[in-house]
Amino acid sequence: MALEILSQMYFASPVGDSPEARRYSRINRFLSVADAVLGLELMLLLLLSSATNTLRDFSFQLGFHNYALALFFYVLMLSLIGKLLSLALDYYSFRLDHEYHLSTQRVGSWAWDQFKGFLVSLVISALLAELLYLGIREFPQTWWLVCWAFFLFLFVVFAQLAPVVLFPIFYHFKPLENDALRERLTVLSTRAGTRVRGVYEWMLSEKSKKANAALTGLGNTRRIILADTLLNNYSEDEIEAVLAHELGHHVHKHIFKSIVMQAVISFFGFWLLKLVVRYSYQSAGWFNSQYDFANLPLIVLVATALSLVLLPALNAYSRFNERQADRYAFGNIPSIEPFVTAMNKLSEQNLSERNPPRWVEILFHSHPAVSKRIAAAEAWNARRA
Asked: Cβ of 183: how many Cβ atoms within 10 Å?
């Protein structure tokens, strides 16, 4: 009840959407903000109370004074604390989807997903931390450049491996059995200049009633995935329209452009981290050295703050890309009607706001409002006529 009252106070939505969609979106926005605030507060508390130094010393004891092992235990404890703090919000989000009849997942399955998600996050976090501090130790002057190159390489690797390694941890996939639809989508992909390695049915209904589709992976792992909730409730014309949008991202090279943008942003981010890390031990004397991993909360804090500052600009760029992908779809499907009906059905099925407040769109949305996407489709069709 307290979450609902606060969300109504600070995340109000204009008239135009159903009360359920407005309330659901409002609470989800509040939950995302609350989760971010909790994470920031944890990092600040660890730094201001010097608890991070205590955790570091304890980690060395657990790791028998082996640096790499101690760092792993530090990341493990930090991850555990963060997970325990956010668990109540995660459970509330799970119950919220059930309240709005958007989830089919049972508590046991949700708990198992939480555990798997924690393990995956721990492995990735530990790997990144080990590489970061290895770079700081081995290249004390140029570590930020070395680590930037490492992290950029890993960004590409994870994008390639996600469909075949990460996604199957949480969802089941199987080759699409509808031969006619598979052929239709493959032809559409070929016309867009991309070769896909398969069309797969994503068994989303095991956990959710929402619908989705995507063109995922890079190179040999590129594949089309279609949620069974989409396949069961949408016409083939509507599915083609949804995929045409996804292929628009390929045609406009949005993945490559996103990698370039990530490279530029992360370059600046690592340069900023270099300055902060150097100041924290040379001038402020907060830590014993550059590679004193007690400074990890400070690094996380700086990276998170930079991400939040850049979020409106990144969202604006993403919305620009989405509009480009929409325009590609308009020109490569026989009629815009399936696109319009698909957008309306997705909005209703996923209980998303068709017309959120402008400030909400700027701060939270990587896609244009559904109402704007439909208006753009109708305007494009009028010009074509």
From this structure: 11
Q: How many domains does the chain have?
A: 1
Q: Are 342 and 10 in contact (CB under 8 A)?
A: no
Asked if pLDDT for residue 2 goes beyond 50, the answer is no
CA distances from 73 to 52, 79, 293, 377 (A): 13, 10, 11, 53
7 within some domain: no
Task: State the amino acid at position 74 in one-letter form.
Answer: Y
> What mean pLDDT, rounded, does the chain reach?
91
CA–CA dist 306, 272 (Å, integer): 9
Whether the per-residue pLDDT at 14 is higher than 60: the answer is no
Q: Is residue 3 part of a domain?
A: no
Averaged pLDDT, 150-155: 92
- 28-29-33 Cα angle (round to 5): 115
pTM of the model: 0.88
Looking at residue 16, its pLDDT comes to: 61
- Residue 214 above 90 pLDDT? no
CA 310 distance to own-chain centroid? 15
Residue 242 domain boundaries? 18-384
Token digits for 16? 């135009």
Contacts 24+ apart (CB under 8 A), 335-338: 335/237, 336/377, 336/378, 336/380, 336/381, 337/237, 338/235, 338/237, 338/238, 338/240, 338/241
